[in-house]
């Protein structure tokens, strides 16, 4: 069963964004700036999961915002702006990948900027392990990265991921299983080292 | 499902297990708590799987320069029916056009007369370039040097500045200089920027000058500059890239310190960047650059700090961000913005 209202969960400030979207359609470029400001980094993170190529993602994000503006009269108000941006960026990136036959499964290069700030309750030790985990995720093949992003970072349901990617439930499961296995292998020492802390932190 | 022989990968890849870790709804919560109580020996495996599922995250961000060059590229490709220059803050709907106000007509008339007088009789023969509130403009000087003039700023120089032994310009407000080297008759021609009582002497280099509210900041991107206080020539500082020097009326000497140059020059790429700036300082800046009066009605707020960026042509984004960070209400009354 495909549940459509889960898409609603996507946006935290739905009402707010609807207002900004309408202003955008009325030609207020401030509103375009608003969405750019709020989603540029998130689109980078998602875009890199679709194709690990920063330059390509950069071009695609630009194209996305130009398209939205230039076609604003023909667009309806999306149920969730975030979901709309996600679907559109994905379409643009995949079209470019197909066009240029870009190989996107290269290993992360040093332009990868890892998250610097963590919630204050995360210890120093754990922070560096989270970085290791991020690097390991970025070393996965692109399709695995995207599905990991959608499931674990965006907390989307399998049904919604299936709808977005066109992949069947069983394929998603297998892909996630394979990805987790690779991550576990990459972090084998890390996680075992962490274990005593984890068990003590009585969740 | 029999979870007894699950490894940590199996747990982490299991839909129902993920649901517990990611959403913790009551069905999964009660199931897994019970299951763990029945199988305490599985606790380590479960904890490891849990850690993995919880900590998958993505943290890449655009650099300020990527962010701004992308925004510029977007603006350049927008269809023309929209004006890419964004109104900084919506004009109040009831305001009447300035041209309809009688006082403006008189003032404009006087300005035209004064301007023609200045053009014809100006004894100093200087050229003056001024930016409006919210406007950023790039100027190429006769020698090929470029000056990016920030909002509400003024640059002037002699019309024949190229023929003089040194190229001299004066700046009020804020400007970023990218100076090209120049020699005439086998001699280097220095470039001098005057800001308040400071004299900044350079050959070929790039630096930012901020001259507002009786305070001057000179920040060097590359090359080298010499900064001299004209009131006291002893008071001289040489700057290296990534350093800045400040002069303010409360300090006699020039103060030098190391900086992140991007913090001082992001504005020229149309990004306003605040790092740990108090709201009081930000209010001053918005006044200087956009003529926005920001009134902080709650004194405790004045010392709250803000770190973040927003497009130079959209202060609204700044206020929207601010509102998300602090439990404050923002309301606008004409050109006055109240923060409570």
Helix content of chain B: 25-40%
**Number of distinct helices of chain B:** 9
Instruction: Let me know the largest β-sheet of chain A.
Output: none
Which whole number gives the mean pLDDT of chain A?
A: 78
User: Averaging pLDDT over every residue of chain B, what do you get?
Assistant: 81
Q: Indicate the percent of residues in helices of chain A.
A: 55-70%
| CATH C-level of the largest domain in chain A | Mainly Alpha
For the secondary structure, the number of strands of chain B is 20
Shape descriptor of chain A: elongated
What is the C-level CATH assignment of the largest domain in chain B?
Mainly Beta
| Spatial extent as radius of gyration of chain A | 19 Å
Summing up helix and strand content along with how strands pair, one would put the structural category of chain B as: alpha+beta
Written overview of the protein:
The complex is a heterodimer of chains A (203) and B (340). With 203 residues, chain A is mainly alpha-helical. Chain A folds into two domains: 90 residues, Orthogonal Bundle (Rna Polymerase Sigma Factor, Chain: A); 77 residues, Winged helix-like DNA-binding domain superfamily/Winged helix DNA-binding domain (Arc Repressor Mutant, subunit A). Helices cover 67% and strands 0% of the residues of chain A. Chain A has nine helices and no strands. The longest helix of chain A is centred in the N-terminal third of the chain and has 22 residues. Chain A starts with 13 loop residues before the first helix and ends with a helix. In chain B, the strands form four sheets. In chain B, strands 1, 2, 3, 4, 5, 8, 9, 10, 11, 12, 13, 14 and 15 form a 13-stranded mixed beta sheet that branches. A three-stranded mixed beta sheet of chain B has the order 17-20-19. A two-stranded antiparallel sheet of chain B has the order 6-7. The radius of gyration of chain B is 28 Å and the shape is elongated. About 6% of the residues of chain B have low confidence. In chain B, strand 14 and strand 15 form a beta hairpin. With 340 residues, chain B is an alpha+beta fold. Chain B folds into three domains: 48 residues, no CATH class; 105 residues, Phage tail protein beta-alpha-beta fold (3-Layer(bab) Sandwich), CATH 3.55.50; 143 residues, Jelly Rolls. The longest helix of chain B has 20 residues. Chain B starts with 7 loop residues before the first helix and ends with a strand. At the A-B interface, helix 2, helix 3, helix 5, helix 6 and helix 8 of A face helix 1, helix 2, helix 4, helix 5 and helix 9 of B.
């Amino acid at each position: 069963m495909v549940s459509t209202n889960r898409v609603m969960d996507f946006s935290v400030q739905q009402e707010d964004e609807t207002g900004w979207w309408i202003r955008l359609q009325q030609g207020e470029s401030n509103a375009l700036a608003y969405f750019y400001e709020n989603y540029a980094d998130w689109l980078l993170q998602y875009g890199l999961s679709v194709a690990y190529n920063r330059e390509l993602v950069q071009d695609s994000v630009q194209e996305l915002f130009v398209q939205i503006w230039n076609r604003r009269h023909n667009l309806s108000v999306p149920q969730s702006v975030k979901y709309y941006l996600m679907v559109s960026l994905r379409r643009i990136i995949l079209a470019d990948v197909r066009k240029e036959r870009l190989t996107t499964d290269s290993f992360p290069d040093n332009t990868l900027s890892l998250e610097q700030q963590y919630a204050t309750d995360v210890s120093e030790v754990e922070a560096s392990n989270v970085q290791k985990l991020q690097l390991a995720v970025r070393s996965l093949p692109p399709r695995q990265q995207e599905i990991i992003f959608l499931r674990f970072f965006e907390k989307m349901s399998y049904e919604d991921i299936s709808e977005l990617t066109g992949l069947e439930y069983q394929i998603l499961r297998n892909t996630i299983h394979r990805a987790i296995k690779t991550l576990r292998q990459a972090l084998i020492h890390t996680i075992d080292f962490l274990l005593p802390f984890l068990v003590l932190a009585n969740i | 499902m029999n979870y007894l022989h699950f490894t940590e990968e199996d747990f982490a890849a299991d839909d129902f297990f993920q649901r517990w870790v990611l959403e913790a709804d009551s069905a999964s919560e009660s199931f897994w708590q019970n299951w763990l109580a029945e199988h305490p020996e599985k606790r380590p495996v479960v904890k490891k799987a849990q850690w993995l599922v919880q900590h998958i995250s993505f943290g890449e961000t655009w650099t300020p320069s990527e962010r701004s060059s992308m925004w510029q590229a977007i603006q350049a490709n927008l269809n023309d029916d929209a004006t890419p220059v964004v109104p900084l803050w919506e004009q109040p709907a009831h305001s009447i056009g300035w041209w309809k106000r009688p006082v403006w007509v008189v003032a404009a008339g006087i300005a035209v007369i004064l301007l023609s007088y200045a053009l014809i009789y100006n004894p100093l023969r200087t050229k003056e370039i001024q930016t409006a509130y919210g406007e950023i403009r790039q100027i190429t000087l006769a020698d090929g040097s470029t000056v990016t003039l920030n909002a509400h700023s003024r640059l002037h120089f002699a019309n024949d500045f190229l023929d003089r032994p040194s190229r001299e310009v004066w700046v009020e407000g804020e400007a970023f200089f990218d100076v090209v080297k120049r020699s005439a008759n086998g001699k280097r021609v220095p470039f001098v920027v005057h800001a308040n009582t400071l004299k900044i002497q350079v050959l070929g280099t790039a630096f930012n000058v901020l001259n507002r509210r009786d305070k001057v900041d000179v920040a060097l991107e590359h090359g080298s500059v010499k900064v001299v206080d004209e009131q006291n020539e002893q008071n001289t500082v040489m700057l290296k890239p990534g350093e800045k020097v400040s002069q303010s009326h409360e300090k006699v000497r020039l103060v030098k310190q190391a900086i992140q140059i991007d913090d001082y020059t992001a504005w020229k790429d149309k990004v306003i960047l605040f790092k740990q700036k108090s709201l009081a300082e930000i209010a001053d800046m918005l006044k200087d650059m956009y003529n926005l009066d920001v009134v902080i009605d709650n004194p405790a707020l004045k010392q709250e700090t803000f770190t973040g960026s927003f497009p130079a042509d959209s202060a609204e984004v700044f206020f929207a961000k601010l509102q998300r960070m602090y439990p404050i209400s923002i309301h606008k009354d004409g050109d006055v913005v109240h923060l409570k």
